[in-house]
Amino acid sequence: MADTLLAEAELWVGEMRGVSLRGEPLLVVRGEQGVCVFRDRCPHQGYPLSEGTLQDGVITCRVHRHTFDASSGEGINPLRPCLTAVPSRIEHGQILVELPVRAGAPP
Ligand code: FES
């Protein structure tokens, strides 16, 4: 089942925002090609990427300045590792995600 994160109109092109869904921190990014959702954790040491910056399609972690492609989540510097993408789509102006249920999580 899909969950609604935000209205599409709440996020402008070139913006990103941290959103919590069922206790899971997520990063919603709206670029020129559309909306992408990732886990809001830097793969380096786990700090929230929503506290970093988004510029010219590149997410930069504020802590050690690792950079990631905002449309794919791939590492730019360093090349690895990548962000964890969460399946998402837009329906009727709402950004929806399919957040996998973790083992042991309440229904
Ligand atoms: S925690 Fe993000 S680059 Fe180190």
What can you tell me about this protein's structure?
26% of the residues are buried. The chain has a 4-stranded antiparallel β-sheet with strand order 5-6-7-8, with no helix packed on it. It has no helices and 10 strands. With 107 residues, the protein is mostly beta strands. The chain has a single domain, classed as Rieske Iron-sulfur Protein. Bound molecules: FE2/S2 (inorganic) cluster (FES). The site of FE2/S2 (inorganic) cluster has 8 residues, from loops.
How would you summarize the topology of this molecule?
Layout: E1 3-7, E2 15-21, E3 24-31, E4 34-39, E5 53-55, E6 58-60, E7 67-69, E8 75-77, E9 88-91, E10 94-97
Antiparallel strand pairs: 1-10, 2-3, 3-4, 5-6, 6-7, 7-8, 9-10
The protein binds FE2/S2 (inorganic) cluster (FES).
The site of FE2/S2 (inorganic) cluster has 8 residues, from loops.
Low-confidence stretches: none
Topology as a string of helices (H) and strands (E)? EEEEEEEEEE
CATH architecture: 3-layer Sandwich
Biggest beta sheet summary: 4 strands, antiparallel
Q: Approximately what portion of the residues adopt beta-strand conformation?
A: 35-45%
Estimated structural class = mainly beta
Q: Kindly state the percentage of residues in helix.
A: under 10%
CATH classification, class level: Mainly Beta
* Total of domains: 1
Mean of the pLDDT scores? Answer: 92
The name CATH uses for the topology is: Rieske Iron-sulfur Protein
Question: What's the tally of helices?
Answer: 0
**Ions, cofactors and other bound molecules:** FE2/S2 (inorganic) cluster
Q: CATH superfamily, please?
A: Rieske [2Fe-2S] iron-sulphur domain
Report the strand count: 10
Give the overall shape, derived from the CA principal axes: globular
Strand order of the largest sheet: 5-6-7-8
Taking Cα atoms only, what radius of gyration do you get, to the nearest Å? Answer: 13 Å
Distance between the termini: 12 Å
